[in-house]
Amino acid sequence: MQATYKTKLIATVGMLVMGIMLNGCGKKTAGPPPSGPPEVGVVVVEPQRVLLTTELSGRTSAHQVAEVRPQVGGIILKRLFVEGSDVNAGEVLYEIDPASYQSAFANAKAAQARAEANIIPARLKAQRFEDLVKIKAVSQQEYDDAAGALKLAEADVEGARATVETARINLAYTRVTAPISGRISRSSVTTGALVTASQASPLATIQQLDYIYVDVTQSSAEMLRLKRDLSSGEIRKNSASQPRVKLLLEDGTPYSLPGTLKFSEVTVDPSTGSVILRTLFPNPKQILLPGMFVRATLEVGVKEIAILVPQRGVTRNPKGDAMVMLVGAEEKVEPRIIKVDRTVGENWLVSEGLKAGDRVIVEGIQRARPGTPVKAVPFRSEPTAAPAGAPQPAAVKK
Fold it and tell me: What is the pTM (predicted TM-score) of this model?
């Protein structure tokens, strides 16, 4: 028993010693720590010309809207259009029973003929008395009566002609026509319905959609800031023509055709503190429909000398101030507080704190401690910036 126990103990100790030796042989010696300052990716600040824009939300509305109402009363005999179709100006939409208006027109024409017949003897009598009064064959009173009767007969003819014209117009109004070209809505009446002249509810509505308005709202504070920058020369208008506008649809897709800014309201809405800007867009394929929610990007001006910094290179200090890390003259990290105005694509527009030639750290900021030396290398993962002379679109994010 003792021999067996000793044999097992020796075998166990031997296995432990062999494991320790094998483990020591398989262990690799760690290499020396990397030498030299850490690398950081930097961009060199270069002034450039930037086109500034602002993004505003709004809704679309039809370029022209006309409500179709009858101008005479009667029974609807026919509806001559297809609901939801395109109609042309002057096209007949409804027919109102014309029987009573035809009768009134015929009666007016008969009255006109009677008045024109009465004027003939009155004119001849006045002409005869004009010659007779010169030779004292009739009295002056008789001549005056004949001349007055002629004037009265002429007035009756003019009144009869006006009555005929009124009857003709009312008869024409029994054919209700489209006042403008556009797409017509559903009909609010059917054949056999009784309508009245200038009734409150329209028979149908026509909307012109070849062009469409987009009404967007801008805060009065932003409008004042823009006017101040323009007057001071900080930014200038892009051209003498109307500012161009781009559109984003409800699903986020861009609208292919640009629009123009037509005008802005002269009154600020006291409940929202904003003004309405009206823009106009071509709509040949009628993609835009009235009532859609859209976002419009308006050109506000051009900044000739602009400093742009990638957003990833800007941080905030505990006070909330914007701050960047620079590589200084001695290749050491220097923090600097800057002032930013707005975003321009993926960059910040810097108004204070940076100048041309500054090297801003945008990659490896976690290794860039203030006062420590670093190795600056060009940052190349971002897409190449546009040339200095080319305007760049901007979007104000609020």
Answer: 0.65
